[in-house]
Specification:
Layout (H helix, E strand, L loop, with lengths): L1 E7 L5 H4 L9 E9 L2 E9 L13 E2 L5 E9 L2 H7 L11 H12 L9 E9 L4 E6 L8 E5 L2 E5 L3 H7 L6 H10 L13 E2 L4 E7 L4 E7 L12 H18 L7 E4 L4 H13 L5 E7 L8 H11 L2 E7 L4 H12 L8 H12 L4 E3 L5 H4 L3 H9 L4 H13 L5 H10 L4 H9 L4 H8 L6 H11 L8 H11 L1 H16 L3 E3 L5 H9 L13 H7 L5 H4 L10 H7 L1 H8 L12 H12 L5 H16 L4
Parallel strand pairs: 13-14, 13-16, 14-15, 16-17
Antiparallel strand pairs: 1-3, 1-9, 2-3, 4-5, 5-6, 6-7, 7-11, 8-9, 8-10, 11-12
């Protein structure tokens, strides 16, 4: 894991590269060269994981000098890829970076689809006067870019781009979409002229003497055909592929650990890692001081003892909660509504003191139907239309303050598939966004629709499958994986995601829906395989998620929140209708759960506070 920074016709020095020094404290380099008439700078900050020798140094230049690579991530099948190359290719070391450089030279851009790993890279081809930017199939690693008449800048993080191009202009439509989706879907960010490479995409930049042109295309696979097989056959096949994934992702020349919650996903990953790891496997868990029913320390401790793991635990208190939200917002760079970034901050800090690489169970819920929204789609198809239409008014009449229940009932009556998906995803609905910003959402449908079309979701029989495919490439990439990467790399910690192994996801998406989810529960095949390693009490534990006690804290500190979010002199107040913000705070204080909405507003507030937007 590393940090990359590059530019065309816009020089940068070591001090700009140092803005991402936290991503790679072990080594750095800057390479300056020309493509045609254009001056190109490639910079790299290295976190040494595979091949700790100078042979893994980047930027990496081919012996002929015509090809240059900067690469962030891990290619787990790189040894297999290396064997496909002719024997006359010379290698100085055993790094996956060197494999990737030579593989791209020999097989060309189309070979990116062969890479099984997590990556963001830039590859310069002086022979073709061309440069490509590529991001892995599920967007585990971030990659941002910006271009204008002066040139191009791209980076693992936004800060260097802003420093070089002084980009601060707010994208108003992206802000509206953020309120609805709770994250900015690629390629948009809150900065009008800063974009994200979408997951599974490659951008090709062509250089001529007079101009630079570019095009983006989806290189990854579309959704596979549904396979057949008995339950036993499919469970065994799933287990073999999952175990191979974990074994691949233990590839490292430094110590590896595992993030351990109380749930089945991290427990199963830990069990498989323990089976194949040489040495004492360390596990890490975060909990909270005081009473908090979602605390997972006791459950994780039970799992660690069962598996024989070296368990490291830390309980945290929120003595400076607002300061922590502000710091997480700074690190993540993009506002999010996901409160789990708070415990992730402490978990990454704890873990980085012991290991440089860690496995996580993240990524199982989306392709295997772990969330209630997928089960709701299955339930919906069995409900007569008259019943769907009365669910929301019935709940409102009963006086429920369960915001999630009300929103879920509302989606049941929406017939249009894309509109229903958007309703399921939304944090704020159209009316609330209109009240907060005075604008309509004209962007979210387009952003979701891109992947809906690209993946050929229409060919899938069930809406739940389509939603799962979209979430695997959008919700994961631009929300959960985004904050996980930024926060772990802030502590120079490489976080790997075995559940998003390319071969494994292809298999999961080829399974019949009934092997993944039904109206009662999800991750059916996952749980069936887990029985070979874990007792049923761990497999059947109630899903807690990776939560923090923000709901309670927001109620206890309501006056502090009001002083902050309702400050008429803030940059936030110049964009948001404060009377509508007041209503959200009041609703939360009266018993409605507006935790995510308030967290997102706080995250946006701090974003405005650190960006001189116009």
């Amino acid at each position: 894991m590393c940090g990359i920074l590059g530019s065309v016709d816009i020089p940068f020095s070591e001090d700009i590269l140092d803005l991402i020094a936290h991503r790679g404290p072990d080594d750095f380099g800057i390479e300056r060269f020309q493509i045609g008439e254009h001056d190109v700078h490639f910079g790299h900050r290295r976190l040494s994981i595979v091949d700790l020798s100078p042979a893994g140094h980047q930027p990496m230049v081919s012996p002929c000098g015509n090809y240059v690579l900067i690469f962030n991530g891990e290619i787990y099948n790189h040894q297999e890829l290396r064997r496909r190359l002719p024997q006359d290719f010379e290698f100085n070391g055993h790094s996956d970076s060197e494999t990737l450089l030579n593989y791209l030279i020999y097989f060309g851009q189309q070979s990116i689809a062969d890479l099984n790993g997590i990556f963001a890279f830039a590859f310069a081809n002086k022979v073709k006067n061309q440069m490509i930017l590529a991001r892995d199939s599920f967007g585990v690693k971030p990659l941002y870019y910006s271009y204008n008449q002066s040139g191009i800048v791209f980076s693992s993080e936004i800060r260097p781009i802003q420093a070089l191009l002084n980009e601060h202009e707010l994208d108003g439509q992206a802000l509206v979409s953020l309120l609805r989706l709770r994250y900015n879907a690629a390629p948009r960010t809150l900065l009008k002229n800063v974009k994200k490479v979408p997951s599974g995409h490659v951008i090709t930049w062509n250089f001529s003497d007079s101009k630079i042109t570019h095009e983006s295309h989806f290189y990854a696979s579309q959704l596979p055909e549904t396979i057949k097989g008995s339950k036993r056959e499919l469970v065994n096949a799933y287990g073999d592929i999952l175990e191979a994934s974990v074994k691949r992702q233990l590839l490292s020349d430094v110590e590896v650990g595992v993030l351990l919650s109380g749930g089945i996903d991290s427990a199963l990953i830990a069990a498989l890692a323990k089976k194949h790891y040489k040495g004492k496997l360390k596990a890490f868990t975060i909990g909270f001081e005081g009473e908090f029913e979602e605390d997972e320390i006791a459950d994780a401790k039970e799992t660690a003892e069962l598996l024989g793991l070296e368990h490291h635990v830390e309980k945290i208190s929120f003595h400076d909660f607002l300061g922590l939200i502000k710091e997480c917002s700074r690190i993540v760079e993009e506002p999010l509504a996901t409160t789990s970034m708070i415990p992730m901050y402490y978990l990454a800090k704890l873990t980085s003191a012991h290991v440089k690489v860690v496995l996580t169970g993240q990524g199982a819920d989306e392709p295997l139907g772990g969330y209630s929204r997928y089960r709701s789609e299955i339930i919906r198809e069995h409900l007569p239309s008259p019943i769907r239409s009365v669910l929301k008014p019935t709940f409102q009449l009963l006086g429920t303050k369960n915001d999630q229940l009300i929103r879920g009932a509302k989606t049941m009556e929406i017939a249009n598939e894309m509109e229903r998906f958007l309703s399921v995803y939304e944090i704020f609905d159209k009316e609330e966004i209109q009240a907060l910003l005075g604008k309509e959402d004209n962007l979210s449908k387009e952003l979701i629709g891109h992947f809906y079309t690209t993946l050929d979701c229409k060919s899938r029989n069930h809406p739940a499958e389509k939603m799962m495919a979209l979430d695997t490439r959008l919700n994961l990439s631009d929300d959960l994986l985004n904050y996980t990467d930024k926060i772990t790399m802030n502590f120079a910690l490489e976080c790997r995601v075995p559940m998003l192994d390319l071969e494994l996801v292809r298999f999961m998406e080829s399974l019949p829906l009934e092997r993944k989810v039904n109206y009662r529960e999800g991750k059916l095949i996952h749980k069936a395989f887990a029985e070979k390693f874990l007792p049923r009490k761990i497999i059947n534990r109630k899903k807690k998620g990776f939560q923090s006690p923000t709901n309670r804290w927001f109620r206890e500190e309501m006056e502090t929140l009001k002083k902050l979010l309702l400050d008429p002199s803030s940059a936030f107040s110049k964009v948001f209708n404060l009377s509508s913000v007041t209503k959200i705070l009041q609703d939360h204080a009266s018993g409605y759960n507006k935790e995510k909405q308030i967290f997102l507003l706080l995250s946006i507030y701090y974003w405005f506070d650190s960006n001189d937007t116009n």
